[in-house]
Amino acid sequence: MTDSSQVNEFIKAQIVEWPIAAGNFAALTNVKIKEFDVDGMRIKVQFNPARIVSSAAKVDADSLKTRKCFLCAENRPEEQRRLPWKGDEYSILINPYPIFPRHLTISSNNHRDQLIKGRMADMIRLASELDEYTVFYNGPKCGASAPDHMHFQAGNSDFLTLAENLEAVEHKVLAQIEGSTLSFVDKYPMKMFVIDAINPDHGEMLFNRLYAALPLPVGESEPMMNILAYSAPFGVRIVVIPRKRHRPSFYGMEGDGCMVLSPASVDMGGVFITPRQQDFERIDENLVRRVYKELCLSQKEAEFISQNIWEDLSKNRN
Fold first, then answer.
1. Using an 8 Å Cβ cutoff, are 184 and 209 in contact?
2. pLDDT > 70? residue 58
3. Which of 89, 90, 173, 293 is spaced 20 to 30 A from 148 at the CA atom?
4. Nearest to 271 by CA among 171, 105, 155
5. Hey, what's the torsion of the CAs at 151, 155, 159, 165, to 10 degrees?
């Protein structure tokens, strides 16, 4: 079993050994941050130039074919060490281009597509063991800069605003298994489904029920979503944010109206990342609302999913 203290020591050792990572982690102390309220949600914005690597990543099929996978062991920098996890199925790595003061990538040791189906139990176990961290999953077209290699990420939980935002609103329970619940949260501009997993197996069962109800875009391998999971007094809380679009309409490098803003789980978790100064200065509560409206499900679309879950429950009872 790997715990937070072991991972914290691993991060410290890697920063000493790896100059590039050390420089980027040190730079976090100087990043600019601003905060504002969006319909009751506390939102932070971070100006982080090093994240241009991820925000501007080309993730189309042709680009993926022509670049070496940076998560495969043979292509990782010599300085990048690993902690084996779950036997030797995953490697815990530090992220050399951090957003969090403690930022990890948990990479599969096999080169497999970024797909969450069949791996929710792993995500729940990670969040339980790394109790100081929020573990997150970016779908292949929802912010993942390596959609061709299965991985999670994790960062210290006190950085995101998601947990406190969720404490302030009603959770509408849709399904329950012996105390573990699947709920719908619709009081914010982005609509969310929350699984409170007292029992990991029941948490996985509830996620599978939600997964089956989510729309599958034509030509895609899984529904579009961001997922965040973190330890809670009762067990593990899993937050699923369904998506319908990869990047906002104004995404781009050129033109006065363009911004390099490629929202992923961290942004959905309450911290928007801007790698360019002009984008940091421009972003405000109205632009965040626009991002949620373009990328996330509408009230009607989310309620349709909720209804499908109820109908599925009704069929299972009969």
1. no
2. no
3. 293
4. 155
5. 50
pLDDT above 90 as % of the chain: 79
Residues 6+ apart with CB under 8 A from 268: 162, 190, 226, 228, 241
In 3D space, the residue among 240, 207, 246, 184 whose CA is nearest the CA of residue 55 turns out to be 246
The residue-averaged pLDDT of 42-63 equals 71
What's the residue count for the chain?
A: 318
Q: For residue 285, what is the DSSP state? A: H
Q: Quick one: residue 95, left, alpha or beta (phi over 0 = left, psi -120 to 50 = alpha)?
A: beta
Tokens of 104: 């990890």
Asked whether the predicted pLDDT for residue 53 surpasses 70, the reply is no
Task: Please give the structure tokens belonging to residue 171.
Answer: 């959770």
Copy the structure tokens of residue 221.
């391998």
Calculate helix-pair angle for 4-17, 19-27, nearest 10 degrees.
Answer: 110
> 298: which DSSP letter?
P
Do β-strands 41-47 and 271-274 pair in parallel, antiparallel, or remain unpaired? parallel
pLDDT tens-place string over residues 10-43: 999 999 999 999 999 999 988 899 999 999 999 9
Query: What is the chain's mean pLDDT, rounded?
Result: 91
Q: Which residues contact 173 (CB under 8 A, 6 or more apart)?
A: 181, 182, 183
Q: What is the rounded average pLDDT of the residues 224-251?
A: 95
